[in-house]
């Protein structure tokens, strides 16, 4: 089943947890005194939706406070995009708004991975590179060809994707499959733990790439 099909069939729990996971993986390293797990309240609420609106407000406030410091421009641009995604998150625990948000989070995470994809840059049908790397601002740096590639990948056609993009696509599929398989069962908590493990590993990989890029600019 394609990523788009999984998102279309997911329930509130799967949509919320997959959206949080997408953003959590892409968060840059915090400042020295920053919270290493700023989205923890949302993880705690994504199983049942309990106090979802309150947890969402707390996370927004914490990230806005952390974003007040100075950072390397490309890293700060990524953080701004994640804060915007959190600002767009629905405060109501209903499938329609959560599906729209989870879809946007999925696309954002794939965009960020495509922008950083190395050493093999993702290519379009003509063999040309589709990403110019991350913008310093909050916008996407993938361009029209990159956007088209992402939509093809989410629909199930992965030709032309580089290793980072392919890995993130697979991770999103595995996360939604795990959440769907444990929905409404006694194993629901185990499904969330599996999602957290998958997301933590993905975050480790992406932060390593971000760190190498930052050192290369230094």
Any overview of this molecule?
By secondary structure, the protein is mainly α. It has nine helices and no strands. The chain has helices spanning 3-9, 12-26, 40-45, 52-66, 73-87, 95-115, 143-155, 163-181, 188-217. Helix 2 packs parallel to helix 9 (188-217) and helix 6 runs antiparallel to helix 8. The relative contact order is 0.17.
Estimated helix fraction: 55-70%
Query: SSE order in H/E notation?
Result: HHHHHHHHH
The coarse silhouette is globular
Quote the average pLDDT: 85
Features:
single chain, 218 residues, mainly alpha, 9 helices, 0% strand, globular
Please specify the SSE layout and strand pairing.
Elements: H1 3-9, H2 12-26, H3 40-45, H4 52-66, H5 73-87, H6 95-115, H7 143-155, H8 163-181, H9 188-217
Helix pairs in contact: 2-6, 2-8, 2-9, 5-6, 6-8, 8-9
Write a compact overview of the structure shown.
With 218 residues, this protein is an all-alpha fold. It has helices at residues 3-9, 12-26, 40-45, 52-66, 73-87, 95-115, 143-155, 163-181, 188-217.
């Amino acid at each position: 089943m394609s990523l788009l099909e999984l998102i279309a069939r997911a329930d509130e729990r799967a949509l919320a947890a997959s959206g949080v996971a997408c953003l959590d993986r892409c968060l840059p390293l915090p400042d020295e005194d920053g919270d290493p797990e700023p989205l923890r309240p949302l993880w705690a609420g994504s199983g049942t939706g309990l106090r979802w609106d309150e947890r969402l407000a707390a996370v927004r406030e914490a990230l806005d406070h952390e974003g007040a410091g100075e950072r390397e421009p490309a890293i700060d641009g990524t953080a701004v995009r994640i804060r915007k995604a959190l600002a767009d998150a629905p405060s109501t625990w209903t499938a329609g708004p959560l599906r729209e948000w989870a879809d946007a989070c999925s696309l954002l995470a794939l965009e960020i991975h495509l922008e950083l994809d190395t050493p093999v840059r993702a290519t379009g049908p003509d063999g040309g590179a589709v990403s110019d790397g991350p913008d310093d601002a909050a916008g996407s740096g993938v361009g029209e060809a990159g956007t088209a590639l992402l939509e093809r990948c989410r629909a199930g056609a992965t030709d032309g994707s580089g290793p980072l993009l392919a890995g993130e696509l697979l991770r999103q599929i595995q996360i939604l499959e795990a959440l769907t398989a444990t929905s409404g069962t006694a194993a629901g908590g185990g499904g969330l733990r599996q999602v957290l493990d998958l997301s933590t590993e993905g975050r480790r990989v992406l932060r390593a790439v971000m760190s190498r890029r930052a050192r290369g600019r230094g």
